[in-house]
Amino acid sequence: MNYWEFKKLLRQKEIPLVYLFTGEEKFLMEDALETLRDKFKDASYQVFFGEDITWKEIIPFLEASPLFKNQLLVIRHCQNLREPKDKDKIISLLKNPINTCIVFMANGEEEIKKRSYLEKIVPKNGIVEFSKLKSDGVRRWLNEKLKELNISLDSEAQYFLTMFWGDNLALLYRELEKVISFVGEKKEIGIEDLNKVSSPKEIAFFTFLDALYKRDVFLALSGLDTLWNEAMPPMVILEIIIKQFRQILRVYALLREGFSEDEIRDKLDLHPFIIRKVIQNLTNFTAAELFRLYFLLRQLDQDIKSTAKNPRILLEGFLINLNRTLT
Q: DSSP secondary-structure letter at 2?
């Protein structure tokens, strides 16, 4: 099962008592463990590492007397837990542990080659795969956290957070906590609140993207100045520009084919805010201009990679092409 299925499972009255947590999204894994701890809040809590414990030491927990207090036992780095000699006995005990919930947590890339025997002895209904979330999954996770915290975040602020931190949920949550601490008792957070707690680089990045959509050459050049002064590599800046124009072209093409805003969002896996923003600003471009600018970007990519020309001057030259009055 995945993270979402696990969360749904825990809402049931009867849940499995043995789990194997695997996958690369460690933040979700820790989040799931905290949810289990809330579920077993009256149980004693003990943590061991796979390299420091053996099955001989684990078995007494699985055979605990019903008279004992409930226990939540966590084995971290379980890929380092040596394979038991008596697998049949372990399998039997894991089917119905007494007063004990046990969680085996694999750690890092090592798990891929070492977890196979645990997958065979842990009951299937307790194996949870924590994969990296795609864009829509990150938005769903963020919305659930906002609901838990009783906080609302406008669409532009949500896009700002997921654009910068969507590939790292731990950092995304840190930034969310930071802005919540900043606004105090305020329950509605907007982009202006995020701007007050964000770095100049983050603000310039967001402003730069907005300038591209609006064809505001002077704002774009100002954003480029800040990104450059913040030591953002020229190829990263170019990749940002290419990505934005590729998105504009794809949205334009799908609109021409008759797809709705919701259908485009599902097809491109983009935040609803960015879909709306692209559609609103498509009037700033003709089809011919979009293709000409995209062609210039491909040429710019070659020039930066293969010539000794100053990359900043090359980038500025492209941005100047955004302004109709100068082209």
A: B
Q: Are 127 and 19 in contact (CB under 8 A)?
A: yes
Q: For residue 104, what is the enclosing H or E element?
A: strand 100-105
pLDDT band at 5 (very low <50, low <70, confident <90, very high): very high
E strand spans, the chain:
18-22, 44-49, 71-76, 100-105, 127-129, 152-153, 188-189
pLDDT digits (tens, 9 = 90+) for 60-104: 888 776 566 788 889 888 888 888 888 888 888 888 887 788 888
The CA angle 154-271-287, to the nearest 5 degrees, is: 120
Q: Name the pTM for this structure.
A: 0.66
pLDDT digits (tens, 9 = 90+) for 172-216: 888 888 888 787 778 888 888 887 777 777 777 777 888 888 888
Provide φ and ψ at 186, rounded to 5°: -65, 135
Three-state DSSP state, 49: strand
**Do the Cβ atoms of 274 and 204 come closer than 8 Å?**
no
What would the DSSP string read from start to end of 164-207?
Answer: HHTT-HHHHHHHHHHHHHHHTT--EE-HHHHHHHS-HHHHHHHH
Sheet with 127-129: strands ordered across: 44-49, 71-76, 100-105, 18-22, 127-129
Q: Please give the domain boundaries of the chain with CATH numbers for all domains.
A: 3-129 (3.40.50.300), 135-197 (1.10.8.60), 205-326 (1.20.272.10)
State the DSSP string of 62-99.
Answer: HT--TTSPPEEEEEETGGGSPPPS-HHHHHHHHHS-SS
Using a CB cutoff of 8 Å and minimum separation of 24, what contacts does 261-268 make?
A: none
Smallest CA-to-CA distance from 202 within 172, 169, 170, 182 is with: 172
297 within 8 A of 219, measured Cβ to Cβ: no
What is the phi/psi pair of residue 42, to 5°?
Answer: -95, 0
With cut-offs at 50, 70 and 90, classify the pLDDT of residue 109.
low
Please give the Cα distance from 103 to 256 (Å, whole number).
51
Q: What is the largest distance, in Å, between two alpha-carbon atoms of the chain? A: 83
